[in-house]
Design a protein that fits this description.
The protein is α/β, with parallel strands linked by helices and 171 residues long. Helix content is 30%, strand content 20%. Strand 5, helix 3 and strand 6 form a beta-alpha-beta unit. Helix 2 packs parallel to helix 4. The N terminus is likely disordered.
Length: 171
């Protein structure tokens, strides 16, 4: 999941949200094949202009660092949270993010069940990436996030959670 912290802030999960992967003895020799979701690097570059980017994954730090070297070679995603930051197994807690503000956080996630209670309102669900070279998910999501970034301010109607409720109706 990549979290886009829309203080902007946005958060995302790398495995199956931004890329697909195949492990080949990863824990023995670190071998892994990665297929990037189409447009992921341009997407991250644009989102980094608008938001503070964070990665929050239930994967190990070793695994996530290796993946992020492929996904984000320019280090645009500044905050990285791993399995050690999860309160239990695969559950994620957005309060672990620096400067977390529920009104200004949007999460791209292929498994919204990783978030409990009210934090689910911060999730923009996306389909898992299975390696399809014609996948258009990021090109569909990008204009929505750009629209939010243009309107994001302190007014209650620009609360990310309210924005996401409206977006869900469009998707």
């Amino acid at each position: 999941m990549i979290c886009f912290l829309l203080q902007g802030a946005t958060v995302a999960d790398a495995p199956t949200t931004l890329m697909a992967y195949m492990l080949s003895d990863f824990y023995r020799d670190g071998a892994m094949t990665v297929w990037l979701r189409p447009g992921v690097r341009a997407f991250l570059a644009r989102m980094a202009e608008l938001f503070d980017l964070a990665l929050y994954t239930a994967g190990s730090a070793r695994y996530a660092r290796k993946v992020m070297r492929e996904v984000d070679p320019d280090d645009l995603v500044r905050t990285h949270l791993y399995r050690d930051h999860c309160p239990s197994d695969f559950d994620k807690d957005l309060t672990m993010l620096p400067r977390f503000d529920a009104r200004r956080t949007i999460v791209l996630e292929d498994n919204p069940d990783n978030f409990k209670g009210a934090q689910r309102r911060n999730v923009l669900p996306v389909d898992s990436f299975e390696g399809d070279p014609l996948d258009g998910t990021l090109s569909r999501v990008r204009p929505l996030l750009e629209m939010y970034a243009r309107s994001a301010d302190a007014r209650p109607e620009h609360d990310a959670r309210i924005f996401l409720e409206a977006v869900q109706l469009l998707l």
